[in-house]
Write a structure and sequence with these properties.
Elements: H1 3-8, E1 12-16, H2 18-27, E2 32-38, H3 44-56, E3 60-63, H4 65-71, E4 80-85, H5 92-99, E5 107-111, H6 117-129, E6 134-138, H7 147-152, E7 162-165, H8 168-177, E8 181-185, E9 202-206, H9 215-218, E10 223-225, H10 238-257
Parallel strand pairs: 2-3, 5-6, 5-9, 6-7, 8-9, 8-10
Antiparallel strand pairs: 1-4, 2-4
C-alpha cells in the first residue's frame, strides 16, 4: 500500500518535523505505523530517529523531499514525517479525575474558541512545559489538532491530553461542581495575575485572538485577571500570555510547597 493510500484513510494522520516525531516516539501514546524520511538525510538527528524506529519495530520508507512537501504543502517537515494512527482526543472525566489526585494543584487550560492553528500549537507546548493536566477546546468554531498544530507544538501533544467538548459552558459548570476555581484572562482586567491566589484546583481560560473570552464563558468565571503592561504594547500573543500566567502559578505553588 502506497503513502497516498495510507493517508487517505480516516484512521491516519501525519506528524511532521524532528521534535514532534521524536517526542511521539518517546512517549508511545500514539501508534506510529511508518516513518517517512527524505532521501539523502544523514544528520545525527536522522540517525537518532532511525535508531528509535528500529528499536520499536517501526518500518521506515525513504521518499523524495518533493514528495513529502507535496503531501504537506507549506509545512516545514524537516524531511521527517511519521504516519500515525488518527489523533484521539482525551476523555473529559478521566483527565479531570487524574488532575484532582493532586489536592489543590489540578490545572486545566481552556481555549475559548482560539481559531489560529499556530496559536493553538504554541499554547499546547506552553501548557505542557508548565505541566498542566489537560487542555480543553470546543468542537465548533475552534482550531483542532492538525498536522500544523502538531508541528507547532513540537511534540507536546504526546505529553498534554487535549479534550474536545461539544458545550464549553456545560463543561465549566461540571468543573465548578467538582470544586474547580475558574479564572478567565483579559487585558482589561484591573486584577493582576500577581494578586490572585493560584493555590487551588484551577481552570485557566484563554480567549479568542480578536474577541477574547466570550460573554457566556466570562459569566462563569470566579475571577478575571490581567497581566500588568509596563511597556507600550497593549496585549500579548495568547501562548505568551499563558506562559506568563502559568509561570506565576508555578512560582506560587512551589513557594507554598517549600523546598525539597
Amino acid at each position: 500500500m502506497g503513502g497516498g493510500d495510507l493517508i487517505s484513510e480516516k484512521t491516519s494522520y501525519l506528524i511532521p518535523g524532528f521534535h514532534a516525531v521524536r517526542e511521539t516516539l518517546i512517549q508511545g501514546r500514539v501508534t506510529i505505523r511508518e516513518l517517512w524520511i527524505a532521501e539523502g538525510k544523514k544528520s545525527a538527528r536522522t540517525k537518532e530517529i532511525l535508531q528509535m524506529a528500529g528499536e520499536r519495530g517501526i518500518p521506515v520508507s525513504f521518499k523524495k523531499t518533493a514528495a513529502l512537501s507535496h503531501l504537506m504543502p507549506g509545512m516545514a517537515h524537516q524531511g521527517i514525517v511519521a504516519l500515525a494512527e488518527k489523533f484521539t482526543y482525551s476523555d473529559f472525566k478521566q483527565v479531570t479525575d487524574i488532575s484532582m489526585q493532586e489536592h489543590n494543584r489540578a490545572l486545566l487550560i481552556v481555549a475559548d474558541h482560539i481559531t489560529d492553528e499556530g496559536n493553538l500549537g504554541a499554547l499546547i507546548r506552553t501548557a505542557a512545559f508548565f505541566s498542566a493536566h489537560g487542555l480543553i477546546i470546543p468542537k465548533d468554531r475552534s482550531a483542532k489538532v492538525t498536522a500544523n498544530v502538531l508541528k507547532r507544538s513540537s511534540g507536546a501533544c504526546a505529553y498534554l491530553p487535549v479534550i474536545r467538548v461539544v458545550n464549553l459552558g456545560r463543561a465549566l459548570d461540571l468543573l465548578e461542581k467538582r470544586g474547580f476555581w475558574i479564572v478567565g484572562t483579559s487585558g482589561e482586567s484591573s486584577e493582576s495575575v500577581y494578586q490572585c491566589d493560584w493555590n487551588r484546583d484551577l481552570v485557566l481560560i484563554l480567549g479568542n485572538e480578536q474577541k477574547g473570552i466570550s460573554r457566556t464563558i466570562r459569566n462563569r468565571c470566579h475571577h478575571v485577571v490581567g497581566i500588568p503592561a509596563p511597556g507600550h504594547m497593549e496585549s500579548l500573543n495568547v501562548s505568551v500570555s499563558a506562559g506568563v500566567i502559568l509561570s506565576e502559578i508555578s512560582r506560587q505553588r512551589k513557594a507554598l510547597k517549600g523546598p525539597g
